[in-house]
Amino acid sequence: MHFGPHLLLAALEGLVTSAVLALTALGLSLVFGVMRIVNVAHGEFFMLGAVLAWAISTAISGHPAVGFVAALVIAPLLVGLVAFLAEWLVLRRLNYNPEGTIVATIGMLYIIQQLALTFYGPEARPVEPPLNYRILLPWFGYSGYKLSVIAASAVLLVITWLVLTRTKIGLIMRATQYDRETAQAFGIPVERVYAGVFAIGAMLAAIAAVLIVPISQAHYLMGQDPLLLSFIVVIIGGLGSLRGTVVAAILIGLSDGIVSVFFSPTLAKIIATLVVAMVLVFRPQGLFGTAAR
Amino acid sequence: MADKNGFFDLSKSTLSRRTALKGIVAGAGLALAPGFVRYSQAQSSAPIKIGFQSHRTGIGAAYGRWYEKTSAAAVKAINDAGGISGRKVELVIEDDGTDPARGAEVVGKFATQHKTDIVFGTLFSHVVIGSAPAAGENKIPYFVVSEGHHVASTKLNRYVFQPGITDVKSQIQSMAPWIAANAGKKVTQIFPDFAFGYDHRDYLPPALKAQGADVIAQIAIPPTESSFTKYFPQIPAETEVIYHVMVGPAVLTFVKELGEFYGSQRPQLFGFIDSLEAVDINSPGLEFLDGSHFWEGSPRYAQPDDSAAQKAYRAAVGIDDNGAAVGDPKDVSTAAHMFGCWETLYVVKKAMEDAGYKGPEDRAKLVEATEALKEFAEGPEHPQGPKTFNGKIHQCFGIQNISKVEGGKLKVVHKTKIEDGLYEPEGDYTTQAL
Predict the structure, then answer these.
(1) Residue B113 falls within a domain, yes or no?
(2) What is the DSSP code string of B39-92?
(3) Backbone angles phi, psi at B208, to 5 degrees
(4) Second label for B42, Cα 20 to 30 Å away, from A224, A275, B170, B434?
(5) Is B79 in the same domain as B148?
(6) A115, A123, A146: which to substitute to probe chain B, counting the most B Cβ within 10 Å?
């Protein structure tokens, strides 16, 4: 294949990765930014979204698009509920202690993973894409659904940004992030904000998973890669920075796509990890993060 | 009720320390005695314990589940017919997480903790290679159902056997003539980047060369990869046949993305069914495979010429004519490989009975008795077909099936002969000390 089409394919693949990664990492970043909690179970919320998407789309007969749309609405809500309960049952009892919550979320990771293995099983199961359209380019064919994932993710990111910057809920969340105690003094119910943020973070991961599941099937171990990549993205972008997260996701996704098409996927991972190390050395707060107060 | 003698009155008790000690000793003796009798019988009537190293979790989990089902069915059949030398057979299952380090631990656990008679059942080649040294150190016979060439390469040790499924080198050698004659002469290989894939990488090019065909590109893909489109530009445009062997949960994605990439303008496809074991061939996106060919160890779909033994085997394991679990058409089996568990257990039975196997102290005799086996006739114990066994390299040889995807089913279009897959032994395990 010639260089031009080759690069185009690499860029397309990279953009799909970026799109899904941006949503997942945004969830992680939001939880860290507002609650100062490192949520190690984030990848499992992603997996849970995909597994539920499979369950919902199989339960609903008719055109695959109907089941998919239902999954896109219901799966994130259910995952949000699980996260809400986890926050209420576990994290709140630990007073959001940073070390305690890391250990607790590691525990959640294993619990969710093993429950999925028990009730869903070890198989990788496919979800039918809502549209089976193959875009025929002169050099190769490309999945129309993958392009729609990029678009859907962009729309969702814009919505999240609008919610955070233009609504009262966003204002409350930002206030809590900025200074918890002052926010409380102004009558903001911090605990409820925390529960909400934790649920929204998990829901973002679940939405990303529902979008990706028609491309790569639902499997109980699928949460590991997104977790690792989300951490990389969040560290590079700056913890708690929405803009940084999106920029870093596009950077990592595109470089992953291009490097792995032209060289090797292993090299792409090596480079991503190296970038993280460099960022931690030279700009510990991340590209767009603000220094810790 | 009156207690005239003050028998229950502890305050009047005359029980001395010495009496108490006597009582304890006597009681202990009584408790031990029947146990001792039971132990003396253990040699003849205690069950034979087979340690099953199962891929319950990890990338091999779908295989692991079906390997367990098949082995349970075989053990039931063996027990119903009187067991091994009149002793019941019992499976002790441990999960290895499809992980080599875990695998070695599990083998050690079987040998020292569960004290099983043998270890059995591993599929994934990296786990076999990781576990084999532990089997050698513990001197416990290790019967794998892996299809990798590692056992036959004689690079493992004398305790490792593969008597129930053929190895990749033999499979490739017997199918290469068919590929060159029917699919095409310019072949691009796509394979997983670990031991099992390397067998394909190493043995396909010479086998095809002998038939006047060439491997023009080899693409290795990490086993945990979840997206594949990025590898396809490496496939040369002049490719006539794509030879694909992928394993793990992402195989469906692999085929779907191949379909999106090529559409109807595709080269011929020849794959190992490993790519689609436990996956419904009629899954959305797999229409692309229609008309392509697959290797199958044992056919997934019932064939018109199935033997009575094959039919009985399928019924015992509980798979329907489409190779899915009876009662759940979505639960597709790993039919092309799992027959190996059934056949291996019958080989173990034969070898144990030949050796007059009594218990772990006879493990060396079991190794020698297994090495002495020469052939397995087709029948209820070997439903996949007849096999020969080479005791020097601990590997069996059998027939291979080449199946075509037609109307949403796999139809066997060619069966190889045992002779097609024979090769010169690369070593001799029997020269190693026991």
Answers:
(1) yes
(2) HHHHHHHSPEEEEEEE--SSTTHHHHHHHHHHHHHHHHHHHHTT-BTTB-EEEE
(3) -75, -40
(4) B434
(5) yes
(6) A123
* Amino acid (one-letter) located at B223: P
For residue A263, the distance in angstroms to the closest alpha carbon of chain B comes to 10
Q: How far apart are CA B94 and CA B109, in angstroms?
A: 9
Shortest Cα–Cα distance, A214 to chain B (Å): 9
Domain that holds residue B270: 168-305+403-413
More confident residue, A241 or B423: B423
The pLDDT tens digits for B134-187 are 999 999 999 999 988 999 999 999 999 999 999 999 999 999 999 999 999 999
Predicted-assembly ipTM surpassing the 0.90 threshold: no
pLDDT grade for A159, boundaries at 50, 70 and 90: very high
Number of domains in chain B: 2
| Model confidence pLDDT, tens digit, residues B225-246 | 778 888 888 899 899 999 998 8
Chain-chain contact of A126 with B283 (C-beta, under 8 angstroms): yes
Query: What residues of chain A, 191 to 220, have a C-beta less than 8 Å from chain B?
Result: 215-217, 219
A225 in contact with chain B, both atoms CB, cutoff 8 A: yes
B34 falls within a domain: no
Nearest to B253 among A132, A136, A215 (CB): A215
Q: How far apart are CA A187 and CA B215, in angstroms?
A: 72
Residues B159 and B232 in one domain: no
Q: If you average pLDDT over residues B354-371, what whole number do you get? A: 95
| Mutate: best of B95, B225, B260, B288, partner A, most A CBs <10 A | B260
CA-to-CA distance for B394 and B132, rounded, in angstroms?
A: 13
The pTM (predicted TM-score) of the whole model is: 0.76
